[in-house]
Amino acid sequence: MPSYLFWLFSTIMLIGGTAVIAFRNPVSSALSVVTCFVGLSGLFIGLSAFFVGVIQILVYTGAVMVLFLFIIMLLDLKDEQKRAKGLAPALAGFTLFIAFMVQLIGVLSRTPDKTAPPLDAATLTAAATAFPSGGKIAANLAEGRLPDVHLIGHTLFTQYNLPFQILGVLLLVATIGVVALSKRHAE
Amino acid sequence: MASLNDYLLVSGLLFAIGLAGVVLRRNIIVVFMCLELMLSAANLSLVAFSRFNTVNGLPDYNGQMLVFFVITVAAAEVAVGLAIIVALYRARQTIHTDELTSLKG
């Protein structure tokens, strides 16, 4: 990804993130999270992680944030934004932010930097030999394209098959839990 | 081309923003959104590590698998967490963390 696109998407992401804690209305905060995640998924796509970038949009901004908005509107939180904010929490948050940034810059200035290894047609063609010939992955790689979704599916259903199935059980448990939690108990 | 440290710096900034939001906001829904920001910041560094550490010329897909699992677990967590918030609002008529002091000693 060209450098200016990286800084553009990072700026969108960071402005969105700052707006989440700056806005007082929860609906504005939720929409700022959406802005932040759009910038983030731009960064993912710039890192050649196309599948992750797309599910970031579909799952987070499409499903999760809409769920947040539903709950905010369900609870009808209009009077929440009138409250005065105390000085102590703002100070604590700012101090934490500064302390974290000092540590981060200290660590990053001492670690060796790395540039992205090339992902051009030559390296992709060379990587095609590791996959069974005649398959879709090998064919795409031989043409110099990165079959990101196929590679993720390949990894998911070979190396990570058991965790993937456990994840299905987790989602089932979460669904049942949500139904049990939100059921109105008869007094 | 942006280097690995640029990505880690941006990811750390997003994490710090989320952390500051968790501390300074009092609305429990916004606190929850800031937790999502922190999870996404961790995802960004995972994807950056995956891209900058190639295995046989391809990105290291183990990192992106972890991101996939994090996103799925986070979606389940959001569903359960919001159900708890709705139950809390029904019981107390507030989601302001300053007013939820029944665990205070």
Care to describe what's here?
The complex is a heterodimer of chains A (187) and B (105). Chain A folds into two domains: 1-80, Up-down Bundle (Four Helix Bundle (Hemerythrin (Met), subunit A)); 120-187, no CATH class. Chain A contains eight helices and no strands. The relative contact order of chain A is 0.06. Chain A is mainly alpha-helical and 187 residues long. Chain B is mainly alpha-helical. Chain B has one domain: Helix Hairpins (Orthogonal Bundle), CATH 1.10.287.3510. In chain B, 74% of the residues lie in helices and 4% in strands. Chain B contains three helices and two strands, in the order ααββα. In chain B, a hairpin with a 2-residue loop joins strand 1 and strand 2. Chain B is elongated. The termini of chain B are far apart. The mean pLDDT of chain B is 91. At the A-B interface, helix 1, helix 2, helix 3, helix 4 and helix 5 of A face helix 1, helix 2, strand 2 and helix 3 of B.
